[in-house]
Amino acid sequence: MKDYLIVGCGLAGIAFAEKAIQHQKTITVFENYSQNSSTVAAGLYNPVILKRFSEVWNAQEQLAILQQFYHQIQFKLETQFDFPLPIFRKIYSIQEQNDWFLATDKPSLAPFLSAEINHVKFNEIDSPMGYGEVLQSGYVDTALLLQQYQNYLSILNVFSKETFNYEEVVIHPDFISYQNEQYKHVVFAEGFGIHANPFFSCLPVDGTKGELLTIKAPDLKLEAIVKSSIFIIPIGNDLYKVGATYNWQDKTPSTTQEGKKELIDSLKNLINCDFEIVNHSAGVRPTVKDRRPLVGTHPNYPRLHVLNGLGTRGVMLAPSMAKSLYDTIENEIPLSLEIDIQRLKKINWH
Ligand SMILES: Cc1cc2nc3c(=O)[nH]c(=O)nc-3n(C[C@H](O)[C@H](O)[C@H](O)COP(=O)(O)OP(=O)(O)OC[C@H]3O[C@@H](n4cnc5c(N)ncnc54)[C@H](O)[C@@H]3O)c2cc1C
Question: What is the three-class DSSP state of 183?
Fold first, then answer.
């Protein structure tokens, strides 16, 4: 009997698979490439909400787990995925300068914010009021991570490029069987694909579509992430990721002309130089109205678990949420009620 069957190999599935492997558990991972949120993600991790200058929920703890997690995988796969870079938030007014200073006085935010307004001059970007500099931020090359981690699972012979068929799940008191194999537990990590899952489709994953551009801009010469209404992330060779849009109505993963236009308009407002669009991608983020992840165990089937609702922050959340789920399954450490699916009282479980 294997320990875990994991459905989905995005950021959530990878984080749980890695946790299980580190503890010498046996796994099989299913991936059918039906969702692509983790592949197209800009990969930014940022402990500060830059609209309001407030702290991201549990940022300190998540960052500590994030660093350990990505560095262990980098070491194991001998590839760099994590690129620490400061974020320069463009400041638009005296009021925003004051808000920045007020934020730096808060003990929870002080480790993440420069004490002064930075008046650095970037090529091709005007910002007469300067920038607030965010520390302990950066980006993870999620597409590369997924590709390399899935290769690694294939080499271990535990990766199946197949659609997981929910109808073939047979629940026994002491194990789950699926296609002639037996497993102690199943972890569902299908992102927005959760809606096809008869056990967990009742969970409120709304989905927020996002679009992203990759541009080539040889004159820009940025070496930090710049954030205004959009962000620009330098990824090397004069290439930059530019994003992202938020669309709460359209739940399809296809790119749109409106999304592209919105990003181009914002970019032209921010930078003065020419650029060429080299890629345009889209995906549906697994967002939840209360903005907290959905982690836990099915109330009627104690061997079925869910790791979802990573929303707009999968890079930061996946490692710590996978750890919490693993600790509750293996070590009976209770989940915090903020992330536990038990917090949702009005669910009709089947
Ligand atoms: C444009 C855009 C930009 C973003 N930028 C950032 C960012 O800068 N920073 C950040 O932290 N987050 C960002 N995000 C959000 C981030 O992508 C998500 O939080 C994260 O990817 C969710 O990961 P997941 O593994 O839960 O879901 P997914 O990435 O959707 O993974 C689920 C996987 O399950 C597979 N699957 C589903 N059903 C089945 C089945 N039946 N059988 C087999 N496989 C199945 C899917 O194919 C998919 O690969 C962005 C998202 C978008 C769309």
Answer: strand
The pLDDT mean for the chain works out to 96
Question: How crowded is residue 239: how many other Cβ atoms within 10 Å of its Cβ?
Answer: 17
Q: One-letter amino acid identity for 194?
A: I
Cα of 9 vs centre of ligand 1, distance in Å, is: 9
Residue 215 pLDDT: 98
Ligand 1 atom index nearest CA of 312: 15
Q: What is Dmax (Cα atoms) for the chain?
A: 66
Q: Using CA atoms, how far apart are residues 261 and 271, in angstroms rounded to an integer?
A: 15
CA 189–ligand 1 middle distance (angstroms): 9
Confidence category of residue 30, pLDDT binned at 50, 70, 90: very high
> What's 213's DSSP letter?
E
Mutual angle of helices 142-155 and 59-77, in 10-degree steps: 50
Burial group, residue 257, by CB count within 10 angstroms (0-12, 13-18, 19+): exposed
State whether residue 54 is helix, strand or coil.
strand
Residue 91 Cβ inside 6 Å of ligand 1? The answer reads no
Phi-psi group of 124: left, alpha or beta (phi > 0 → left; psi -120 to 50 → alpha; rest → beta):
left
Ligand 1 atom 21 nearest Cα: 38
Ligand 1 pocket mutation, candidates 37, 81, 192, criterion most atoms within 8 A of CB: 37
Over residues 143-151, mean pLDDT? 98
Q: Give first-to-last CA distance, the chain, whole Å.
A: 26
Q: Kindly report, residue by residue over 165-195, the tens digit of the pLDDT.
A: 999 999 999 999 999 999 999 999 999 999 9
Q: Where are the beta strands (DSSP E) in the chain?
A: 2-7, 27-30, 44-45, 48-49, 54-55, 82-84, 87-90, 131-134, 138-140, 159-160, 169-171, 176-178, 181-188, 208-216, 225-227, 231-236, 239-243, 276-285, 294-297, 304-308
Atom of ligand 1 nearest to the CA of 33: 47
What pTM did the predictor assign? 0.97
Please indicate whether residue 41, judged by its CB atom, sits closer than 6 Å to ligand 1.
yes
